[in-house]
Design goal:
Elements (H helix, E strand, L loop, with lengths): L3 E6 L3 H10 L5 E7 L11 H6 L15 E4 L2 E5 L4 E4 L9 E4 L3 E3 L9 H5 L3 E3 L3 H14 L4 E5 L3 H12 L3 E6 L6 H4 L1 H14 L1 E4 L3 E7 L2 E6 L4 E4 L1 E4 L3 E3 L9 E3 L10 E3 L4 E5 L3 E3 L4 H18 L14 E6 L2 E7 L6 E3 L5 E7 L2 E8 L2 H6 L10
Parallel strand pairs: 1-2, 1-6, 2-3, 6-18, 8-15, 9-10, 9-15, 10-11, 17-19
Antiparallel strand pairs: 4-5, 7-16, 12-13, 13-14, 19-20, 21-22, 22-25, 23-24, 24-25
Helix pairs in contact: 1-8
């Protein structure tokens, strides 16, 4: 049998998981493509670099035993089954797994002034480079920092909590009166909003109108005319897919993680899912990205006639976040799924869609929440 070439684009959670799942197959040659100059790292650990003592080398991501190319992807020619790389190389493939991840959603140019953008005082917390820049700024001040955090999801909540615990002066700004409903469900989000209000300055139900450079940092003007002065403005507005050309806005996939193009699969933050059970959804956290990567690899092998059909991908992966001393945990998905409190003593909430439990979140109930993982979607595994 002729050896098939499977090309994996991206060396994050989804890409490395896909390559690792493919590596044992004797009938395929696997090439993992990482960005030029990138040392792959575990993105969920960048907080330790930004706010703690973790050295960057400690979060390096072990790579699977496959061929690795450090060469940024320029474009994909799906018709020719060929990928263009920044070096000018054009490797061919029999199957392609796109796992190029995501980029942080930042402020628009009409909100973020040029001087503020160039000041180094406005940052996301998405990459290792972000984390190193934040650490340098905070340690360089020599005093507790004034930090404004803009966002309402997991990163914003955990970042505000960590900075407050470290003695910094935190202002948490969110567009919603109850931030985090999409991420946690209303009951958990309401509980966390109350915890934030007790510990940090909150500006809920507010949007940013303009961010300007100031003598000692940045000045943010909110939609009610009030101003927030800070040494650092952290943007935590979620992510957007980072797909190579010719795709824009993510890669649409079916329930097997197949894209519209022949023998192309996508996984992780770049993949926009369309399936009958959950509709349209996208999850961008480490554990789910890794699970998607492994599933996409099995789908690719099946498409090449080298493995059985892995079946539909359904999100069951867990996550945890420590927020003001509370352990917030979840499994599955909450998007578009109404929250129903569990009839137990713990703070646990089910998220149901069409009569099926598709996600569970909770506070200080990790065991109960995680136990739901393999029971989601009405399937016993």
């Amino acid at each position: 049998m002729t050896t098939k070439h499977v090309l994996v684009l991206g060396a994050g959670a989804a890409g490395t998981a896909a390559a690792r799942a493919l590596a044992p197959s004797e009938d395929v040659r696997v090439t993992l493509v990482a960005r030029t100059g990138e040392i792959p790292y575990t993105r969920m650990l960048v907080k330790g670099v930004a706010f703690g003592p973790t050295p960057p080398e400690m979060i390096r991501l072990p790579l699977p035993d496959v061929e690795v190319l450090a060469d940024t992807v320029a474009e994909v020619d799906a018709a020719a089954r060929r990928v263009g790389l920044a070096s000018g190389a054009h490797p061919d493939y029999d199957a392609l797994v796109v796992a190029t991840g995501s980029a942080p959603r930042m402020l628009s140019a009409d909100v973020l002034g040029e001087e503020a953008a160039a000041s180094g005082r406005v940052s996301a917390l998405h990459s290792l480079e972000d984390a190193q820049q934040i650490r340098a700024l905070l340690t360089g001040l020599g005093r507790p920092a004034r930090v404004a955090v803009h966002g309402g999801g997991i990163i914003a909540a955990e970042t505000a909590s960590t900075l407050h615990a470290d003695g910094h002066d935190v202002v948490l700004v969110a567009r919603s009166e109850v931030p985090g409903v999409a991420a946690f469900g209303a009951p958990v989000a309401e509980h966390l909003a109350a915890e934030h209000a007790e510990r940090v300055t909150t500006r809920f139900g507010r949007t940013l109108q303009h961010v300007d450079a100031a003598d000692a940092g940045v000045e943010t003007t909110l939609d009610d005319g009030s101003r927030v002065e800070s040494d650092l403005l952290l943007i935590a507005l979620g992510t957007i897919p980072a797909a190579p050309a010719p795709w824009t806005g993510g890669i649409d996939v079916d329930d097997r993680l197949r894209a519209g193009e022949d023998h192309v699969y996508a996984a992780g933050g770049v993949a926009v899912h369309h399936d009958e059970a959950l509709g349209t959804w996208r999850i961008d956290h480490w554990e789910d990205a890794a699970a998607q990567g492994a599933h996409a690899a099995q789908s690719a092998l099946h498409g090449l006639g080298l493995a059985d059909d892995p079946g539909a991908y359904l999100p069951r992966s867990p996550y945890m976040a420590m927020v003001h001393g509370l352990m917030v945990s979840g499994v599955g998905t909450t998007v578009g799924a109404p929250a129903v409190p569990e009839d137990v003593q713990e703070f646990v909430v089910r998220h149901e869609k069409d009569g099926l439990v598709v996600g569970v979140t909770g506070v200080d109930a990790v065991g109960t929440v995680y136990a739901w993982g393999q029971r989601l979607h009405g399937v016993q595994v």
